[in-house]
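are you around this afternoon, could really use another pair of eyes. what follows is a protein written twice so to speak, once as letters and once as structure tokens for the fold. i want to understand how the tokens follow from the sequence so walk me through it. anything you notice is useful, everything is just below.
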Amino acid sequence: MSRQCSKTGCSGPAVATLTYVYRDSTAVLGPLATYAEPHTYDLCSRHAERLTAPRGWEVVRLGGEYATPPPSTDDLLALANAVREAGRPRPAATTEPPDQLRREAATGAVEVGRRGHLRVLRDS
């Protein structure tokens, strides 16, 4: 459940976060951010160490060596919840269909599968 390097073709675990400050022509490389944010890039240790900036830009490196973070309790809880949801028994079909299914019957769509709140419909 760990984040991966943002570089194309790299599947290494992310250990650092890169942020560009365009106003100051600066690339800031620091420890892995707690959350993945838009406009930031997660890098593995290999790409973090080899980072270079465009000509005229400055690279600011926060911290020293980057270590792979251990799985957080949030990652483990998300995995446990997904396994629990997958193992939960499906509710039995009722004799009286809900309003949505009645509307689908009128349009000719038939539900053929369900995953969480998403439904797979097929035209009849």
User: Anything to note?
Assistant: Helices lie at 45-49, 73-87, 99-107. Residues 107 and 123 are 8 Å apart (CA to CA). Residues 1-75 form one domain. The chain is about 25% helix and 25% strand.
